[in-house]
Amino acid sequence: MKYFLYHKQCLLLLCLIVLSSGVFAQTDTKDWVYEYSNGKKYAVHIAQAGNTLWGIHTTYNVPVDDIVAANPGIEKGVKEGYRYLIPLGGADMKVISGTIVRDHTVEKGETAFSIAKKYNCSVDDLLKYNPGIDKGLKVGQVLKVIIAPNSEVIPPKQADKPTVTAPSVTFTDTVLVYEVKAGETLYTLSKRFMVPVTDLQKFNNLKSTNIKPGDTLRIPLKKETVKQIPVREVQPKEEVRKADPELVFKSKSKYNIAVLLSFGLNDKSGNTALKNLATEFYMGVELAADSLEKLGFDATIKVIDIPLDSVGIMRILNTPEMKGMDLIFGPLVPQSADIVGRWCGLQKIRMVCPSACNSSLLKNNPYIYASVTTDMTQQEVLAKYTIDKFKTAQIILINPGNTKDQELFDAYRKRFIELSKKNGNIKLIEAKLSDFTTFIRKNGESVVVFPSREKGTVISFINTLHKAIGKSPNADVTVLGAKEWGGFDDIAGYYKTKYKITWASSSDLNYSLPDTQTLLRLYRKKYRADMNKAGAHGFDVVYYFTKTLLMQEEVPSEVINAFDLKAVTPGGGYENQSCFILKHEDYELIRVGVFYE
C-alpha cells in the first residue's frame, strides 16, 4: 500500500485482493447448526431416512405452516440428505445474511485458541460473539462459533420453487410396524423417525432400551395429507413507485472516492481543534481503507484538504476530477457540508455527512446520507425508551424555558404523546424548573426529563433536585437529559450514579467491547497511539457506507455507531435513526442498548 502526500491532498490507492469463499460445516447430532438470514434465525436440519414433516414439527416445536413457508415443497415429502431451514424467530446475533453458526459446548482442557483452531475461525470472532470469554472458559459453557470455510460440508438448500397455490397440510394418526435390523438401536431409530426414545419404550411396553435384530417395533407416526388451496390475487392499493435509476449504484471494477477534510495545510493561523479532528478522522479512514482492501475492494480514495470559505470550496468542487467521483465523504463542518451537499444534489453524486448536518440539506436531496442522528431524533428515541422502560413510573417533563432547547422539548413531548396513545395512554406531567419537585413521588419511582444543553441550567437543576430528594429518602428518581451532559464534568459522579443520569447518543466508544478492542489493536499497531472517538468514527463511516453502498454487502456491526438509515421525507435524503441509550451506573457510563426511531 502506498500513500502519496500533496500540498492540498492525500492520495490513497486500494489494490484488489480476492477472498476465496467456501462451504460451511454441519454439526454432529449433539450440537445444533444455525443459519442467519434477514434478521431471522434458522436451525439447519439435514434430513435422514424416515424423517417426516410432523417429526420435524415436533422436534423443533415450530408450526408446520412456518416450516412449509421456509421450505417450499417439503409438504410433498421430506427427502433424505436434503437441507431444510427451520425458522426459530428473531436473530440473537447481528451477522451477515447466510452466516452459519454452531453451538459448541466447552470441554475440559479447551481454550479459546484451541476452539478457534478446531473450527478454522479467528479468536477475535469468538470474543466478538461470546463476550466475557477473554476472562476464561468454563466446562459446559456453550459458545457461538462462526463456521469457517472448508471445516465441514453442509448441503446447499434445495431449490424447490413455491407453487402458485398455498398447501394445506393435515395429519392423521398412523402406526408403522418395523423390524429391527442389525446395528440399529432404539436411539438411532428415534433419530430416524423423529420419535423420542421414551415414547418408543412406552408404545412398545419396553422396560429398557435394549433391542435386537428381528424385533418388531410399533412406531407412532403422523400421516400427511396435502391439499392445494387456490390463493386469491390481491390487487395493490396503489402502484409501487419504481426506483430512480439515477439512485442505483452501478457495479464497477474500480471506484473513485473523495474524503473532504479541513487540515489547514497552508493556513498556520487556522482552527487547531478542527485540524486535529480532521487528522484523527483521517487516521480512521486509513484503517477502513486497509480493511476494505483485504475484502477485495478496489478504489482510488482521494483525501482533499478543503478550505472553509465558499469560494475555495466551489473551486475544488468544479473540477473534472470531482465530477467523476462515485462517493464523497465530508466535510466535518456543517456549513461546508451544506455547500458540498447541494452541489452533490445537482451533480447526482452520493455524499455522506460524517458529522451533524442541517436537516434542511436532506429535503428534496436523495443523494445525502446523514450518519449522525439529529438532536431531535435523539430526544424522540429517548421518549421511546421512556415508554418501554418506565410504564408505571411518574414521568415529569421539564420545559427548560429557553429558545435554544425548545426544539428538544417539543421533539420529546410530541413523540411521547404519539407512543403513549398506542401503549395505554401513559401519563406525562409537564412542569417548569420552578415547580417540578412537587411532582416527584416521595415513595416510588419517578422519571424526570430535562432536555437542555445549557451547562449552567443543568447544574442548577441537579442541585435543586438533590435538595428536594434529601427530604424524601424513599424516592427513586431517574434523570433523562441530553448528550451534551457527557461533557459536564461539574456534575459529581455521586449525582450521576444516584439519579442514574441517562441520555441518547448517536455514538458510544466503549473500550470493553470486542469490536472496539479489535480496532484498537489495529490502530495501535499502525500508529503507535491510542484510538480516540474521531478515529473510530472515521473508520465506521468510511467502512460502513463504502461496503453497503458500493460493495452492496451488509456490515454485521459497527464500532462506535449503530447505523439505520431511513429517508426522512419522500424524495429526500437519508438520516441515521438509531441511538445508543447511555446510563450512569455504579460510577460508570454503561450502554443500555440500541434503540431505533
What does this entry look like structurally?
This protein has 597 residues and is α/β, with parallel strands linked by helices. The chain has four domains: 193 residues, Response regulator (Rossmann fold, 3-Layer(aba) Sandwich), CATH 3.40.50.2300; 114 residues, Membrane-bound Lytic Murein Transglycosylase D, Chain A (Roll); 62 residues, LysM domain (Membrane-bound Lytic Murein Transglycosylase D, Chain A, Roll); 131 residues, Rossmann fold (3-Layer(aba) Sandwich), CATH 3.40.50.2300. It is 30% helix and 24% strand. A nine-stranded mixed sheet has the order 1-2-11-10-12-13-14-21-20, sandwiched between helices. It has a five-stranded antiparallel sheet with strand order 5-4-3-6-7. It has a four-stranded parallel sheet with strand order 16-15-17-18, with helices on one face. Helix 7 packs across helix 16 and helix 8 packs parallel to helix 10.
